[in-house]
Amino acid sequence: MAFLVGGANSAAADTGYDIENSCRFDEASDASLGGTFGTPTEAKAFTLSMWFKRAGMMGTIQTLLGPGSLEGITLWSDEKMTMYWDNGNGGFINWAPLLRDHSAWYHFVIAQDTAQGTDTNRVKFYLNGTQITTLSNQTSWPAQDLVGGFNEDGQAFYISTYNASARPVGGYCAEVAFIDGLQYAASVFGETDEDSGIWKPKEFKDDVTFGNNGFYLEFKQSGVGTNASGLGADTSGNDNHLAVSNLAAIDQCTDTPTNNFCTMNPLSKDEMTFSEGNCKVVTASDPRTDDNARGTMGVSSGKWYWEVKGSGGTVPVVAGICFDELKMGSDLSGLTGVYAIQNAATTYAYRRENGTTAETAGFPNPVNDDIINLAFDADNAKLYIGINGSYYSQDGSAGDPAGGSNETYASIDTSYFWLPWIESRGASQLAEMNFGGSPAFTVSSGNADANGYGNFEYAVPSGYYALCTKNLAEYG
Fold it and tell me: Where are the beta strands (DSSP E) in 120-220?
């Protein structure tokens, strides 16, 4: 079975339509895409449809679409979706649902038509296919026939900030569609899966009229130019390509609404700073003993692979697995629920925490910038740990995850769910995670699992798979 933090589109339904790529935006680097609106087809009306997976810190303000000044479609500090219009002077609407799940993909549709006579019809917000009518706060609805900056001739606009630097997004965006001149419902862009009840995307490109200013971002390219080869390439047919700012090829990801990958969970960590789509973790400069964090996906069956690149401080971070009931933020020595490895400065020591602590010095000593390989065989209750593609048992002999021999740990209690886990053993340590969908470090070789999922530095052992919803549906 697979364990996922509950929420929006946590587990992908079989869509028959796949989204291949997303774009990762990092708060710390002010990453964004931007352009300038031309003459609109109809300035009073627009629709923004996008899929979004949170990765920013809770309580921050993140603007998904900002046409300059203080206007914007924003995930506000209270974790609710907010819309400001008329350059910040006209008013705002704050919809009630809390958007706190960092493991899930959300689908947002904001549809405006200020020509509508009924004020509540002038702006509509859909969350995962459902129109949200419950508000937590508002000043007013847009005035009838208001022309705001969201589709105004000559107005600069940005995906991920409201002015190219302020209120940046931390997270993943996919299937970003801006429609000029029409107010579409969410049902144009997605549908409810009959079997699972999950809201899922569907192909819509030929069913909409994009209008003069319309654009469609599928993130099929990884360049940094303002052209058809850039991350901001418009595939609507309008060639309204967006300029790329503080994004690189590594930010083109395969973590998408139709194949959701594991990341680290900012809601389950202690004294650590997350960035790069929750795949880069830095410990505090003065951490408490055994600060730790775990991933968003856990398993109790199947065979799974991921990588951790450790650096900073005097030794790399501890890497391994923990069970789903493990408490965060305490000294874990001797507690139930962790199988991992740690570098004890001059001697590499295993640390097994299943009621007692057992450390073994036979394993080779990893150093900063080594890549630690984790191959978890939940079917046979074994964990294999390697360094730079070579696996070892506790006495240092060669391990073989594909062949099922010389495991690092055996007899793991798989009545629990087990999650990727890291722990700091010093100040300012860096862990760059690679679950396959959005590596935090540059992958030079490019290895996928047998299903073609993931992008790993080292070969995935035969029979093991990346932690993503398509694999979990088949093997978890």
Answer: 123-127, 130-131, 135-138, 156-159, 171-180, 190-192, 199-201, 215-217
pLDDT above 70 covers what percent of the chain?
89
Contact (Cβ atoms closer than 8 angstroms) between residue 432 and residue 438:
no
The helix/strand count (H/E) of the chain reads as 1, 35
Letter for the amino acid at 460?
A: V
CATH architecture of 17-253: Sandwich (2.60)
Confidence of residue 437 (pLDDT cuts 50, 70, 90): very high
| Beta pairing partners, 51 | 107, 174
- On the question of pLDDT at 77 being above 90, the answer is no
Q: Which residue has the tokens 């296919």?
A: 129
Tell me whether the CATH fold assigned to 17-253 matches the one assigned to 264-475.
yes
What pLDDT digit, counting tens, does each position of 363-412 carry? 888 888 999 999 999 999 999 999 999 999 988 899 999 999 999 999 99
Fold of 264-475: Jelly Rolls (2.60.120)
Confidence of residue 2 (pLDDT cuts 50, 70, 90): very low
Phi first, then psi: give them for residue 471, nearest 5 degrees: -70, -40
Amino acid letter, 12: A
| Contact between residue 54 and residue 101 where contact means Cβ atoms under 8 Å apart | yes
Token pair in block for residue 411: 């007899």
Q: How far apart are alpha carbons 149 and 63 in whole angstroms? A: 14
Residue type, 227: N
Domain-wise residue ranges, the chain: 17-253, 264-475
pLDDT at 14: 58
Whole-structure pTM over 0.90, yes or no? yes
